[in-house]
Design a protein that fits this description.
- The protein has about 575 residues and is of the alpha/beta class.
- Among the domains are: about 180 residues, Rossmann fold; about 80 residues, Luciferase, domain 3 (Roll); about 110 residues, 2-Layer Sandwich (GMP Synthetase, Chain A, domain 3), CATH 3.30.300.30.
- Strands 4-3-5-6-7 form a five-stranded parallel sheet, with helices on both faces. It has a five-stranded mixed sheet with strand order 12-13-14-15-16. The protein has a four-stranded mixed sheet with strand order 2-1-11-10, with helices on both faces.
- A hairpin with a 3-residue loop joins strand 23 and strand 24.
- Helix 9 packs across helix 10.
- The longest helix has 19 residues.
- It is globular and about 65 Å long.
- The N terminus is likely disordered.
- Bound molecules: adenosine monophosphate.
- The site of adenosine monophosphate has 21 residues, from helix 10, strand 14, strand 19 and strand 20.
- The site of adenosine monophosphate (AMP) has 21 residues, from helix 10, strand 14, strand 19 and strand 20.
């Protein structure tokens, strides 16, 4: 019998265990089940085997069909590509059925999906693969005109990835095709595969944090807690076998897996995977599949919906749950959704590290328009901390949101030094977000009031300023650089680079700076969208670059350009 490699918590793995008392409590309460994630998912799928599980433009699969295909993929991955239980497998796949099959297939085979996004560049994929020790990369051949396959081929040629599996497209020399993997696992049985797995305490999935400095940190999601995260969400949202969910964002992101894919399976609901977030196609899918749940609409998409000539209250009338999250929702947008499209929004706050908050279904607008609600599990604990992270601030005051609970990580993977500052001594994760606790007669709710961490939230895609700055200063003309958020009506924020140049250097602009960063393998969505050349960067009184001063500077420059007197 093959057991999952029991990865002991050591500085080397960076796997910080839940303490024995928490584990015991979480199991006593029934939040944790002592079973692996694929076991929990498969049992749920077996109980609604004939219901429709997944709809894409190419497939309509029942739960039985989806898990049978996933088992073939998982078994084939072991036989054809040599993936062993405990191995990390990189994903660079879009919203297609093959992505769901390979994700579930990896879980059934005891392998650990590494949930990178198709937007990531060769630099991020290479460094992350090295960090988690991944040897295998799954890629989508027809994505972005072959861009992902080209990245995979490049990484394999450099010896940074051993095996590449190409879905939807011709496998290049040295790669294996998705079809070959499926064929190699033709006789696989999901239940038999799950029976071989043990170690519910171990890592099931690697998610990427949107909330730290430098390269995205890796959030190790453990079997029991990740399964519970999805169950708690399905319960909070009231998903059931009749629910029909539409998910239009990159599905491998934690939000896709934890708000849509896994909760849908646990509830026996139907998931319609939208290949893109184009509003007109989303409207078509909503009517065609009688969608009643949109589990995560970023504000940017909500704004595009409001601006779309095709959107009207009648067509959206069947949408029972319209959840906006991932970024601050401007109150005016919530009001316009109500007035123009008859939509009552619910807000959520979520993160790859765990903790989800959600406004209650019956909440009035004071709560649903102005807060992100309350945590979804009775086991969730929240503290609003002072600047030193030591004491809680008074109710109603702004402080750093810190979270602990049955599905919030206790440490990043192999990031010992970072873990010392990101977690309190008693295991609360310091989110780097600013929040306020509101104690009301109807309950306790939280609002998000800003951010301490140096991250730009571009339509929910996170850009870590430090990562981009390190690459900008590799340009021979640049002495120092700072990347800050500039306001954007639709995306919320976009990146603006302030540059100090070497004497006599040719001035850089958005295009030449972008070309430099792309050549270093940076993802396109992280490229600065405005460049300001300055003679010096403003400093704080302790001599650090003052991002606050730069954010104010760019805001007043933009206001002046629009002729607004501030
Ligand atoms: P990720 O790990 O990529 O899901 O990003 C998590 C981060 O997104 C959080 O730490 C917040 O900075 C931000 N975020 C998520 N939901 C919200 C929200 N409703 N309002 C404001 N920021 C949010």
């Amino acid at each position: 019998m093959t057991a999952l490699v029991n990865e002991l918590p050591t500085p080397e793995t960076g796997l910080v265990p839940f303490d024995a008392l928490s584990r015991e409590t979480y199991r006593e309460k029934g939040w944790w089940t002592g079973r692996t994630l694929p076991d929990v998912l498969l049992r749920a799928a077996e109980s609604h085997a004939d219901r429709v599980a997944l709809v894409t433009p190419e497939v309509t699969w029942t739960y039985a069909e989806m898990f049978a295909e996933a088992a073939r993929f998982g078994a084939g991955l072991s036989r054809r590509v040599g993936v062993r239980p405990g191995d990390a497998v990189m994903f660079q796949m879009g919203n297609v059925a093959e992505t769901i099959v390979s994700y579930l297939g990896c879980l059934l085979a005891g392998a650990r999906p590494v949930c990178t996004l198709p937007q990531h560049g060769v630099r991020e994929i290479g460094l992350l693969a090295e960090h988690v020790g991944a040897q295998v990369l799954l890629t989508q051949g027809d994505f972005g005109g072959g861009r992902l396959a080209a990245q995979a081929q490049h990484l394999q040629a450099e010896g940074r990835i051993r095996d590449v599996v190409v879905a939807r497209g011709t496998a290049f020399a040295g790669a294996t095709s998705y079809g070959e993997v499926i064929d190699a696992g033709a006789d696989a049985d999901p239940a038999a595969m799950v029976a071989l797995l043990s170690d519910p305490d171990g890592i099931a999935v690697f998610q990427l944090s949107g909330g730290t400095t430098g390269l995205p940190k890796v959030a190790p999601r453990l079997h029991e807690e990740y399964a519970y995260n999805s169950l708690a969400w399905a319960q909070a949202m009231g998903y059931g076998p009749e629910s029909r969910l539409l998910y239009p964002l990159p599905v491998m992101h934690n939000a896709g897996i934890s708000l849509a894919v896994q909760p849908a399976i646990l509830a026996g609901a139907q998931l319609v995977l939208a290949p893109s977030a184009d509003i007109e196609s989303l409207l078509e899918l909503i009517t065609q599949h009688r969608i009643d749940v949109l589990p995560m609409m970023p504000p940017a998409l909500a704004i595009r919906l409001l601006e779309s000539p095709g959107a009207n209250a009648a067509d959206l009338g069947g949408v029972r749950e319209f959840v906006v999250g991932g970024q601050k929702l401007p109150v005016e947008v919530a009001e316009r959704l109500r007035d123009e499209l008859g939509i009552r929004v619910r807000q959520m706050f979520g993160m790859a590290e765990g903790m989800f908050l959600l406004t209650p279904e019956a909440a009035g607008e004071a709560v649903s328009h102005h807060t992100v609600g309350a945590p979804i599990s009775p086991g969730d604990e929240i503290r609003i901390l002072d600047t030193f992270g030591e004491h809680e601030v008074e109710d109603g005051q702004i402080g750093e949101l810190a979270a602990r609970g049955p599905y919030t990580i206790r440490g990043y993977y192999r990031a010992e030094a970072h873990n010392r500052t990101s977690f309190t001594e008693d295991g609360f994760y310091r989110t780097g977000d600013l929040a306020r606790r509101h104690v009301t007669p109807d309950g306790v709710f939280y609002s998000i009031e800003g951010r301490i961490k140096d991250v730009i939230n571009r339509g929910v895609e996170k850009i870590h300023a430090e990562e981009v700055e390190e690459l900008i200063v590799q340009h021979p003309s640049v002495t120092t650089a700072a990347l800050v958020a500039m306001p954007d009506l639709v995306l919320g924020e976009r990146g603006c680079a302030y540059l100090v140049l070497e004497n006599d250097a040719e001035p850089l602009d958005v295009a030449s700076l972008g070309a430099h960063l792309l050549a270093l393998g940076l993802a396109k969505y992280k490229l600065p969208e405005r460049v300001e050349i300055v003679t010096a960067l403003p400093l704080t009184n302790v001599g650090k670059v003052s991002k606050k001063a730069l954010r104010e500077d760019i805001q007043s420059r933009m206001a002046a350009e629009q002729g607004v007197v501030r």
